[in-house]
Amino acid sequence: MIFFSLELSAFLTSRIAVPKVNLFVWRAVNERIPTAVALAERGVHLEDTRCGACGVADETASHLLASCVFARAVWWQVFVWCKIPIPASFDTLSQILSHCCSLDVDKKKKQILYAICLMTVWCIWMHRNNKLFNGKNNSVSMVVEEIKTGTFWWMNRRRKRTDISLEDWNSFSGFNFT
Ligand SMILES: [Zn+2]
User: Fold this and answer.
1) How far is the CA of 121 from the centre of ligand 1 (A)?
2) pLDDT 10s digits, 56-91
3) What is the phi/psi pair of residue 176, to 5°?
4) Which of 4, 52, 98, 157 is the most exposed place for a label (fewest CB within 10 A)?
5) Rounded to the nearest whole angstrom, what is the distance from the C-alpha of residue 59 to the centroid of ligand 1?
């Protein structure tokens, strides 16, 4: 089923995020990324369809990017960094994204928050690929650092210049969502 939420669609067309990440997250929400389960359903023979991060559940997009213990830990740190409420549920990616959409913040901050969420999804996916294909196993905090740095450069790219330093960006001083 295609998830068509008007609010969520705003996430999926972020002007701050690069197009390939916008597209990737749209596909992830709709379980259309090449996870182990998706590949097996397409007839690819795999020894194991379990998630490489926890080794417990099957690797669907929703599990890998939302409900997995690794993904939850990343999202948790991102929410703490942004000083926004933690979602009531991490069961699916669309639940997390919808939670961020529903926050009562001004349009400019929400655009930035959209971009941070998209970068979070992208960095969790990159972490998965790096571990699977390159044997590189970054920690939760390393992934969170990548999210902070990656969104900072997106902001710079968008604005051509930035009025906030990377140091301030990382600590979010003067930029509170609550
Ligand atoms: Zn997992």
Assistant:
1) 14
2) 999 999 999 999 999 999 999 999 999 888 999 999
3) -115, 130
4) 4
5) 7
